[in-house]
Write the structure tokens for this entry.
Amino acid sequence: MSTTKYISISSQKGGVGKTTINTLAASIFHFIAKQKVAVIDCDYPQHSLETLREQELEMLKSNPDKLAEFQSLGMQAYPIIGCTVQEALKEAKSMDGEFDLVFIDTPGTINVPGIIELWKQLDYVFMPLESDRLSVEATLPFAQALEAFAKDKPDSRLKQYYAFWNKHIKSEKQDFYQKTEDLFAQLNIPFLKSRLEHSVNYKKDLMRSTMFPLSKEFMRLGISSLITEMSQIIFDLAPTTVDEATLATEETKAP
Ligand SMILES: Nc1ncnc2c1ncn2[C@@H]1O[C@H](COP(=O)(O)OP(=O)(O)O)[C@@H](O)[C@H]1O
Ligand SMILES: [Mg+2]
């Protein structure tokens, strides 16, 4: 039986944090959890992850201090494969048994040849949402398409998809957050408890790195709760660590 887990942070809306969170999750599982991680970037034509890796490799070539810092980590970088959606399915299958976790940054639209076959290769999809109506409206048909075409289908691995808040601002729109969560509950779309705070830190190079671990300072922005909650789902662990107390502490610590 395959032990590789295929994961995508995905949605039908641009700019909600798909690439950011795929990268964060891949880096944390690789550098901190020491899982064997690979990334497939088939978000054509942006290929933002593959481009980011190329830029980081260039930067290391011209910056001996950074190169030394990278070498002192004593770890290889995880592979990032840039390809089309149709190629992604082949790439993903060829990784089966070779990696613990494969993160796939997919295009956010259903109108791409091969996307449904690729969804069927995913074990779990996590859908980031922002607190605006458009983001919610784009997520519902996406979840419905995953349900109709992939979840629990005989030739599919997809077990469940989850929504979660990104760019969360604690002081605003409490009513909107609650109403959206109620609506999703009625539609049987589960929501993660963890939320990623909105923070200017996401613009910093270190935060986007595919080659360096995140500093502790950044882990406070709800990221450790989110990744813990995701790992409990992915590896089918008892939800012992993600409780209200952990989440509350994280939120008070965030700047
Ligand atoms: N929690 C956050 N707080 C602030 N900015 C964020 C957050 N998450 C993502 N961003 C920013 O939002 C923008 C879009 O993110 P990106 O991951 O490229 O979205 P997508 O892949 O869904 O199009 C980027 O500039 C990123 O730095
Ligand atoms: Mg993207």
